[in-house]
Sequence to fold (237 residues):
Amino acid sequence: MSGVLQELVGDRKLLIAVAAMNEAHAVLGAFGVESGGVAPWQAVALAPGVDLVITGVGKAAAAGGVATALGHNRGVYAGVLSLGIAGTLVPASAHLLGSVALASVSIFADEGVLTPDGFETFAAAGFGPLPDGSLGLPITPAWGRALARLCPHPPAPIATLSTCSGTDEAARQVVQRTGATAEGMEGAAVALVAVRHALAFAELRVISNTTGRRAGQGWKLPEALARRGALARQIAR
Fold:
């Protein structure tokens, strides 16, 4: 074991969490691992020191899948990497499609109440999902330093949503609430499970699409999936 992986896990292992089966296929294929028999919520070995768990899409599936994998393999992992795709929240950002985004903090972005005066976060109401009532989990600093070498842009907040931004106004509100530059559907939930297990965590995503008005969105999903597989191999090497 050497390079980035050694910096991340030392003498333990890395658990990579992906959401959808097509995302898993890209990663498994990059390692030459057959997908037959790979089941959700069960860790499968990719390479020495690296396992993969397929969680399913969304916060509940992500938290359940990672918690199950960690529970079945207690003491094995140094931490969890949420590896996925994301929609960019940066205006006029089609040129970013296919680029790699590293979270500085993973934020629960739509936990709250929709009131006549606008959206009020659960953090503002005093009962966010974290012990301190907040909505954001910073990635483990040492992991951020190691993974930053794989990213062309500095780490920035990534929002985790159950309802993705399919209108310009929805995207604007996510940015206003969180300061995020991209959005996904699992990162903060994976982070919360890792923190509860006293493990390290990071969120790394490839930009697959723009957000905002659905009809005007740009997509490079196949390229983003392939890039994720290559990223996982870079980390493992």
Remarks:
- The chain is about 35% helix and 30% strand.
- The longest strand covers residues 77-88.
- The two ends are 7 Å apart (CA to CA).
- The chain has a mean pLDDT of 90.
